[in-house]
Design brief:
This protein has 277 residues and is α/β, with parallel strands linked by helices. The protein has one domain (12-48, 109-274): TIM Barrel (Alpha-Beta Barrel), CATH 3.20.20.190. Helix content is 30%, strand content 16%. The chain has helices at residues 32-38, 87-92, 105-111, 138-159, 173-182, 195-204, 225-228, 234-240, 253-262; strands at 16-20, 44-51, 57-59, 117-124, 166-170, 187-189, 209-210, 244-250, 266-269. Strands 1, 2, 3, 4, 5, 6, 7, 8 and 9 form a nine-stranded mixed beta sheet that branches. Strand 5 (166-170), helix 5 (173-182) and strand 6 form a beta-alpha-beta unit. Helix 4 crosses helix 5 (173-182). The two termini are 34 Å apart.
Length: 277
């Protein structure tokens, strides 16, 4: 057995800690207050970017300003689809009754110290016809890259005004392809139910990392064996290609410890306290 064959082993304290939406379990997600607080604990801040009706880039996760998974509590106090709502109305929307409002990407970046990295998740370019967590054939990929390119270009232009370390991630292969086309920023595909699709997308776009859910990590109590038994070896195969494995969404120290022991490299977490720093 060579050194390359030996699985990486970590403790949770060794891992890259990525603040999911600015540690969404502790702060009003994707807000300036969340990013300022999370910057004191995290290695990278993960944030979501979407397009408004005006074509601006704002930091928000969902398609709808108010609704979330049928819940009775709205994410903001404003109704409507983000992509059909003007920027002014979106920036006035109050997030989770916190007094915080939805920021532009530029405002969010100003709140994050340059020494703290930024994981920008490319969420929606202002369309409803997304192709999510799919490894696309060449014709479909070309079409999806065209669909994402204008929005991605605006995101990149904003990022280039700041000095943060940047990682761009997405569930949508077209977003990653457009990012590689218009910038030198590193990319990471976000997986859903397929190890093979995630690894194929990572290979095609020379990704520096892959972002799977915890269910796709073998050898933990959280493993979905119906998937991993058919498509084994995500960590080993990613590491063999010199790609990091950053896992989402981690909520407890127990999950963090189990994932560290399995050999992952980063934790995309809702809570800063999952690691003992």
């Amino acid at each position: 057995m060579t050194d390359a064959d030996v699985p990486r082993r970590h403790t949770s304290e060794d891992l890259t800690l990525i603040a999911h939406r600015g540690f969404a379990g502790e702060h009003p997600e994707n807000t300036v207050a969340a990013f300022e607080a999370a910057s004191r604990r995290a290695d990278l801040i993960e944030l979501d970017v979407v397009a408004t009706a005006d074509g601006d880039v704002v930091v928000f996760h969902d398609d709808e300003l108010a609704g979330r998974d049928g819940g009775s509590r709205g994410l903001t106090d404003t109704d409507g689809l983000v992509r059909e709502t003007d920027t002014t109305a979106i920036r006035r929307a109050e997030v989770l009754q916190s007094g915080e409002t939805v920021p532009r990407l530029s405002t969010a970046l100003e709140a994050i110290p340059p020494a703290v990295g930024v994981n920008v998740e490319l969420k929606n370019p202002g369309r409803s016809d997304l192709r999510v967590a799919e490894s696309l054939d060449p014709d479909a990929l070309s079409d999806r890259t065209d669909a994402w390119r204008p929005f991605v270009t605006r995101v990149i232009e904003t990022l280039e005004e700041y000095d943060h370390e940047v990682l761009c991630s997405s569930f949508c292969e077209g977003a990653l392809a457009a990012t590689r086309e218009v910038s030198s920023y590193p990319v990471a595909p976000i997986c859903w139910r397929s190890v093979e699709d995630g690894l194929a997308i990572a290979e095609r776009h020379d990704a520096v990392a892959i972002h799977p859910p915890i269910e796709l990590i073998e050898g933990t109590p959280f493993t979905d064996e119906s998937v991993t038994a058919a498509e084994p070896g995500l960590i080993e195969r990613a590491h063999a290609a010199d790609r990091a494995v950053n896992v989402w969404t981690v909520t407890t120290w127990y999950e963090a410890a189990q994932l560290a022991a399995a050999g992952v490299d980063g934790l995309i977490s809702d809570y800063a306290g999952v690691v003992g720093r």
